[in-house]
Amino acid sequence: MSVNRVTTRTVPEEPEGVRTRLRGRDAELASIEARLDALDRGEGGIIRVEGPVGIGRSRVLAEAAAAARRRGTRVFEGAADPDEQCVPLGPLLDGLLSGEEPLSGAVRLRDLATTPGQRFWLLQELGDRLRETARNGPLLVVLDDLQWCDDLTLLTFNTLAAGLSSHAILWLVAVRGGSVPSGVRTTLDRIRQAGAQELALGALDDQATTRITEDVLGAAPDADVLRVVRRAEGVPRLLVELLGSLREAVTTEDGTARLSAGPPAPQELPSVVRRLDQLSDEARALVRTAAAAGGPVTVARLAELLGRSSAALITAVRESLDADLLIESGDHLAFRHDLIREAVDAGLPLPLRQALRGQAGGLSPGSAASPVDRLQPSAGRAPADAAEADLLRTAAAELAATAPGPAAERSLKALELTSADAPERPRVIAETIPLLWQTGRAAQARELGASVLATGALGPEDEARIRLALARLAVPFDFTEAVRQARAGSALHGTPVDLRGRLLAMLAVGLSMSGEHSAAERVAAEAWETAAAAGDRSAEATLTTVRSAASFHRMDLTEAFRQAERSVALADALGVSTSLWVPEALWHALLSNTTGRSAEALAAAEEGIRITREQGRTAATAMWLMTRSRILLEAGRLTDARADAEAASATTDDLGPGNLADVTLRYVMMRVALHTNDQQTGRAYAAEARRMRSDGAPVVRHFGSWMLALMADFEGRPDRAMAELDEVMTSPVADRPAYAGLVDPADAPVLVRLALRAGAHERAAQAVALAERLAVLNPDLTFLAATAAHARGLLDNDLAPLVRAVRLYEDCPRPLARASALEDAGRKLAATRKSEAVPYFDTALTLYARAGAERDVARVRRRLRAAGVRRRPSTAGLSRAWPELTAAEMRVVRLVAQGLTNQQVAEHLSLSSHTVSSHLRRSFTKLDVTSRGELTRLTKDRDSGE
């Protein structure tokens, strides 16, 4: 991005060759001028300009920047782009560091922005540079299209605006109205709390429309021309583009513009064509079909026209709504403006347009109506509130299993139609909370539940339902809060037996996930009796998962698998919407991975991501991404594991990642950093681990302890590492986790090695005893036997069990664990038989190199050199033309260089757009490029051999 390109984007409303004056924004410009007057007096602040697509936000920003320059104010302009979110801090840095007078120290600031772990120093230095510049005169910082900004830009803007509020710096930001990502919504809430002035741009009035028409046509419009241009409904971009198409149809007589031959036929509009081109093929087909259908259309009708199921259109519908081409109109989809529909329709070939219209008109009026169709009120009639609310709740229940997004909207609408004193209102709230959580609106869901609990006016049954919903919501975020809500609900007297059974089941889940295993088993026993009495199969599915976790804790993995499979079968039979813990299959995947069945676990995770993404289950998708990041780590795919962890972090809800992220993605990022010798990132996650040590959930504290122990060992402080594990190793036996808080047996040799370095022989022996007991109890799992042999070989410093571990690991999909055993066997051999050690080191080196474990590669190279052997650097998994990139990164780069958007790349590779952004961001850093254009040129150069 560059300032020149940004300037071009600020005047999108102008037709070719015409520069129109800004009309109808006198009040907004006067407000900005007043703030510029205050800026001249040394008073900074924030102005937020908001409005829908095409309303003129960028034009207002351009006029404000020009006004500031006329005063002698220094201006920095930046803008975000939906396809360039992979460049960390790109919009803000390009605004500050490009142009005629960039901020001083541009090179160093860019280096800090693209270097992992330098966020703190980047913020410090940016703040210092802006502060220094503001001392020499007032500054205006313009940031357009805030809705497309990456997370680092949002964080930096928040931090700088707050930290520099006493300086003469005015921040002028623009954001599209309507739905925006949760991170952007948080930013908007924060700047509102900080006193930001808000300018909401609405439609132009009739006087402004007339003046713009006169500007473009060069003459005053007559009544017929005005009737045509009023169809733009005061949207500047549509108005000017419509006028551009009118110029050839208008004649001027006696200073008046008249239509020469009646209203012109609808034509394609440039802005609509651009927005269509940015859509996926599926969404583009949906929008074009909706245009051909004429007026507002239901999703069911579109599905029938496209030959698809309604559920299969979820992603395309959401994409079309996000592009602001379509809007929700009751239970129908409609175009934002009829001009947009006509422009889309005009772009269709005539035979296709006629065929679609014939098909749309020929659908049988007796076709089975979806819940959406049944709810559509008659034109001009206000719904009868109580009856309409009942219908909406029924529709929400029917849609919940396959389309939670539309279900949530219907449930919210039902809540709006339910009066505050209606006896059924608490139940409607309890139905709405899980739907909001599933679709990524957990903060709204929690606030809804907390507000009704705060009234203190609920009966026992209503309160129990609300607490059950809040407990389900809390599971991914706060294990302790999930326990608190479920315990409070189950303690209420006078609740139905089925509801109490579900609360007890949820309490057992919370305790199990929290790491309080003995308490979880006690509660589960009571819950089984209650659920059986109520005949509640949903609670049974949840409790079967708890039984599986208990069997795992007792090291009976055969029984754990049996119960996990039964739990998944029950949940599948019932439908995911009825599950108390969505989805039970997560546990089965984690269990498979823990015991060396990585391929099975990975297949389950990928299927889970695919299904939940298709259904729009944002919360479940994030949970599956976190799970897959852990699986990829232990499968030795470090780059992919890091990408998934970053993607999951980017998609986490507005409540933040929470406890589940603590024990998945934060743990993954720490382990990847240590394997790749990324000390800065390792230390950053060590800081997270210190926070985890004070969490209310034992399992989170245990993970934090293990992460801190690994970091201390990385830094060469084995005594400190063992001290970090004191709480875990001395916790009550009933709840003490094997291997210092982890569920991965492969860490037994790591713990043994760590304890031996610290001289803690008893702790090393304890870890070996646990590993051997686990292997004996589960003789069919070769991976466990390999782990036990590896740990025993380290403890006894005995070559035989190490060689046995190497042989057993050959049949296990754990390359890093196998490489570690090979390295340890080679190290033992090297003491007396160096030549025999070399093949072990060579194989370990190859496995580490394929995984991208740079620190481990360097260590094995040192061992080989000590044995008198030098190996050339390996390029396993890398292309000769692209030695900097992994195979996954190279696949993304190739497609981006062909002109595909991030969304199109994601669809092509079956990845999430966040994962694509993660790969692309790292590729930009490795290749030292800052734009897609640079990347495309570099690709052409390398492919041509230059």
Give an overview of the whole structure.
- There is one protein chain.
- Strand 7 and strand 8 form a beta hairpin.
- With 946 residues, this protein is mainly alpha-helical.
- The N terminus is likely disordered.
- It is built from 48 helices and ten strands.
- The radius of gyration is 31 Å and the shape is globular.
- Strands 2-3-4-1-5 form a five-stranded parallel beta sheet, sandwiched between helices.
- It is 64% helix and 5% strand.
Strand content: 5-15%
- Alpha carbon gyration radius: 31 Å
Reported for the largest beta sheet, the result is:
5 strands, parallel
Poorly predicted runs of 5 or more residues? 1-18, 362-383, 733-742
Order of strands in the sheet with most strands: 2-3-4-1-5
Count the E strands. Answer: 10
Structural class: mainly alpha
User: Mean pLDDT across all residues, rounded?
Assistant: 82
Q: What's the tally of helices? A: 48
- Our measurement of the CA-to-CA distance between the termini, rounded to an integer number of angstroms, reads 25 Å
Q: What is the helix content?
A: 55-70%
General form: globular
